[in-house]
Amino acid sequence: MANKKMITLPNGATFPANGFGTWKSEPGKVGAAVKKALELGYRHIDCAAIYCNEQEVGKVFAEVFGGDNPVVKREDVWITSKVWNSCGSKEEVVAACRRSLLDLQLDYVDLYLVHWPANWEHQGLPITETTMGSDADGKPLWSKTNTLQSKWEGMEECSRLGLAKAIGVSNYSSLILMDLLAYAKIPPVINQIEGHVYNQRPELRAVCEANNIHVTLYSVLGSGKEGPLQDPTVKAIADAHGVSAGSVCIAWALSTGCSVLSKSVTPSRIEENFAAEAVELAAEEVKQLDSLERGMIACNMNEYWGFPAHA
Ligand SMILES: NC(=O)c1ccc[n+]([C@@H]2O[C@H](COP(=O)([O-])OP(=O)(O)OC[C@H]3O[C@@H](n4cnc5c(N)ncnc54)[C@H](OP(=O)(O)O)[C@@H]3O)[C@@H](O)[C@H]2O)c1
């Protein structure tokens, strides 16, 4: 049975609210995880060039979408990819999108996102550990030429060329978003940001909503960090529903009206996370979960870049 909860974007496109992520899904595991997710009924898969696993994911897409009797029809799955920081000119963005399509074995992505509001030195494609635009220590080499505007022009070109059905951003703060809206000829439809019970982002969500930009929350389980999954309130509500803490975290995130991304390479957890969209939290439980806010940044790029990038 496929995802049931759907999101409708201002442009009329619809996609499943409960999506499946692929960050940190190791080579050799990510393909099996995506296959399991699609077989279970996930119809929303989140990819990115910087995850350095799009080729393995692409093999699974070719397998499940291919042949006379496909497991799933391509057009029934919402697939996202993202342009990495090292591609910031119009031409670099289009080339990056084409490269992701090649690796994913697709003709188009449903959604192409600017991964971060950042431009680093272009070091070629595909994106690997040595071509991601950083120095040998992993610290960003900032581009002296590319701007967020040139990057967005590349995104618009991907849309015009039909490489991406929709375009959007990720990790954009309110200020950068408002600036983008001033020059965008095609406005972004989505802002994908971190969000979970320990970091709920109400202000940024409100700005997005007021500007017709749908919000996708990532790292809804806390991205493997000590946090929401260990919280006593989350656990108590999980016990009351006979589900896991992870399911409660996903159900809370869905209750915000946002779409939601979680990731797992563990088959039992993939099943659990998929089933979480059926968990109905009572208003009082949502209120208790809302009170857990503490501004925890689970996905803190400062750890990787030595730069406070969080929006
Ligand atoms: N746009 C961006 O900048 C950005 C940033 C971060 C994430 N994302 C997207 O959002 C997706 C989800 O975020 P995330 O990967 O950071 O973190 P997450 O989904 O919050 O957490 C993943 C971690 O939780 C574990 N896990 C999964 N299901 C579980 C369950 N039911 N119970 C207990 N543990 C569970 C996973 O382990 P196992 O895999 O070992 O099971 C993994 O360690 C990413 O994969 C990516 O697609 C986007």
UniProtKB/TrEMBL annotation:
Protein name: Uncharacterized protein
Phylogenetic placement of the source organism: Eukaryota, Rhodophyta, Bangiophyceae, Bangiales, Bangiaceae
